[in-house]
Inverse folding.
């Protein structure tokens, strides 16, 4: 059978009676309004009415874009939207035009750089037009509120309205979802260009609630829909009005601003700010949603911007509620903070940087250790001018240690050494020299001992120096007439201080193995 919906139109009439207060496009933003920065770039003809009338936020009052008659082709106008975004529907308004309205219109869109050049045929440089609304018939003095069955998946920032063949249109409104402009750091999360939207309000009889989140400053010459949100007078002291704003993205709020510009004498007496977090579009549909007061009641003055620090600035929020007591008008509300997604991204980046630094530090440590090992190896292989420190004899294997060893006699002591470490080293060399069989080896060992002894003579401790002075000082002949041993003649014996008293009158023993 094929696709049954393929023959149906891509749009439907969102308000057939033209009397509905709310409709399917009420939840979207008019991105073709001059209040959020939309501009008319170029028009084919403006003989009887300026094309800038199309983007006025006010209701039409005999002001419209009207072209000359008998156009052989078609008239067109190109509008750059206040912010790029997806498109959900259109409002083609011909009120005030009876007999001079366009008979048929169509709308195309494209995404291009904001400073793109438009040629004389209505084409944007470097972009191709996509049909958003096919050619349809329009009536005089009426609104044509047309909603797409499915909002566009692509974002657009330029639209082209084509009149077939000529005529006039009073207002053009392009409803859609704004693609938020994500700036780094703190930003106004309650601005329409950040993706914010006014969900609901208790009353907006005298001023539209959507004006609260406009990026422009309110002016006295603006229409009531742009000047600010204004409620009717109340007759009770306990009365209060409110407006709920969905932030562009959940964030951590730091401060809020309540601006009463253009309101002098009709501003509220006091105002407070509440906030909550919910994943639903409207907190009123979330039974578990809880409102926190982040700014207590503050007295408001006329024509003044009131800056208030926010409590609970370490808690993320998705919606704020502006509560005014008892009634009045507020031009703008701004909520400054930082996006949750941005903070999470920064935290992830910091973790990644810390991990990368740890890896680099580990690599540097490994390289330094390798360099140190190479330096130690090269220094051990290179010849040294310092006398080599004799190594301790290698430990015998377990089988050899298990065998009984013949005890060796201690060498004869004849003079004092400088320190205990040098004494042990000299003793080891002496033992090895005594065990050597060849005379050449013994001479080499003796030379090493002499070099060690010479070096150690200059490093005696104070106690050893006193002992040496006592030995070299003149003594009675009786004590100095002892017979010198063979070891003393060879200058190869190793001695300790403790053995001097025992050898005063005894003949030294030869301990040669």
């Amino acid at each position: 059978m094929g696709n049954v919906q393929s023959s149906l139109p891509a749009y439907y009439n969102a308000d057939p009676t033209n009397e509905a207060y709310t409709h399917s496009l009420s939840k979207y933003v008019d991105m073709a309004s001059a209040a959020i920065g939309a501009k008319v770039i170029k028009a084919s003809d403006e003989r009887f009415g300026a094309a800038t009338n199309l983007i006025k936020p006010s209701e039409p009052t005999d002001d419209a874009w009207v072209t000359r008659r008998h156009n052989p082709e078609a008239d067109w106008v190109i509008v750059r939207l206040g912010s790029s975004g997806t498109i959900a529907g259109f409002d083609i308004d011909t009120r005030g035009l009876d007999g001079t309205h366009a008979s048929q219109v169509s709308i195309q869109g494209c995404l291009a750089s904001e400073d793109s050049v438009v040629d004389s045929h209505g084409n944007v440089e470097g972009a191709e037009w996509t049909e958003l609304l096919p050619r349809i018939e329009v009536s005089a003095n009426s609104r044509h509120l047309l909603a797409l069955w499915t909002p566009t998946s692509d974002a657009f920032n330029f639209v082209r309205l084509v009149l077939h063949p000529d005529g006039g249109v009073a207002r053009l409104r392009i409803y859609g979802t704004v693609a938020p402009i994500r700036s780094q750091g703190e930003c106004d999360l309650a601005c329409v260009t950040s993706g914010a939207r006014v969900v609901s309000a208790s009353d907006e009889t005298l001023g539209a609630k959507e004006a609260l989140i406009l990026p422009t400053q309110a002016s006295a010459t603006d229409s009531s829909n742009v000047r600010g949100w204004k409620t009717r007078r109340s007759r009770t002291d306990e009365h209060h009005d409110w407006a709920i704003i969905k932030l562009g993205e959940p964030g951590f709020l730091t401060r809020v601003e309540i601006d009463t510009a253009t309101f002098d004498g009709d501003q509220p007496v006091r105002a407070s700010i509440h906030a909550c977090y919910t994943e639903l579009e409207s907190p009123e549909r979330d039974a578990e949603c809880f409102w926190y007061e982040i700014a207590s009641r503050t007295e408001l003055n006329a024509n003044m911007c009131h800056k208030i620090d926010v409590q609970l600035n370490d808690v993320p929020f998705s919606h704020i509620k502006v509560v005014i007591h008892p009634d009045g008008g507020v031009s703008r509300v701004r909520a400054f903070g930082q996006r949750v997604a941005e903070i999470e991204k920064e935290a992830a980046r910091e973790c990644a940087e810390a991990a990368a630094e740890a890896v680099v530090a580990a690599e540097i440590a490994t390289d330094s250790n390798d360099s140190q090992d190479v330096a130690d190896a090269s220094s051990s292989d290179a010849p040294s001018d310092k006398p080599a420190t004799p190594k301790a004899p290698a430990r015998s294997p377990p089988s050899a240690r298990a065998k009984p060893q013949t005890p060796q006699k201690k060498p004869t002591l004849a003079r004092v050494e400088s320190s205990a470490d040098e004494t042990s080293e000299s003793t080891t060399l002496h033992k090895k020299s005594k065990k050597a069989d060849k005379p050449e080896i013994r001479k080499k060992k003796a030379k090493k001992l002499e070099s060690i002894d010479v070096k150690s003579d200059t490093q005696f401790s104070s106690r050893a120096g006193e002992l040496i002075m006592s030995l070299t000082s003149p003594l009675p002949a009786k004590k100095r007439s002892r017979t010198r041993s063979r070891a003393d003649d060879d200058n190869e014996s190793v001695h300790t201080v403790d053995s001097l008293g025992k050898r005063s009158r005894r003949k030294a023993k030869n301990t040669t193995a």
Q: What stands out?
A: The helical segments are 224-227, 340-381, 398-402, 420-435, 439-457, 462-472, 477-480, 486-490.
